[in-house]
Write a structure and sequence with these properties.
This protein is mostly helical and 138 residues long. It has one domain. It has six helices and no strands. It starts with 14 loop residues before the first helix and ends with a helix.
């Protein structure tokens, strides 16, 4: 029953799983880039008019900046092979942001619309978990 795993087998991932993770990472990056850039470029008064619970305009801009940074963190470290341990951190950070967004949506009376940020949070967490090997090799 005891299996011996050689050091060459540790930390490896199947090609199919790697392709799946990259595909999901790119799709998440596109979503978070679009939403983040929208929060950074749309006039604050227009953004605030769409929110069920008002928050400071600078905070909305900060959230947009975090989303853009997270999107870049999902892609650039793996592409450049520089600081690849940042990819799982970006995934966890975006997952946390989406859990908070779901709570905000529920408090604002969103009900079922809170499912979308929760689904995004789950997908971000799966990417972070799938790329956890990056952090252990740092």
């Amino acid at each position: 029953m005891n299996q011996v795993i050689s050091s060459s087998q540790q930390g490896t991932m199947s090609r199919g799983m790697s392709i799946l993770l990259w595909t999901v990472q790119v799709l998440l990056a596109v979503v978070f880039l679009m939403v983040g850039v929208m929060k950074l470029s749309t006039p604050v008064d227009v953004l605030l008019a769409q929110m069920p619970i008002k928050m400071p305009g600078l905070f909305v801009r900060f959230i947009g900046l975090c989303e853009v940074a997270g999107a870049l963190g999902l892609i650039l470290p793996g592409l450049t092979r520089i600081r690849r341990e940042l990819t799982p951190l970006a995934g966890w950070a975006l997952a946390l942001e989406m859990v908070v967004a779901a709570g905000y949506t529920l408090v604002g009376g969103g009900g079922l619309t809170a499912l979308m940020p929760l689904i995004l949070a789950l997908i971000c967490a799966l990417v972070a978990y799938g790329r956890r090997g990056y952090a252990s090799r740092a």
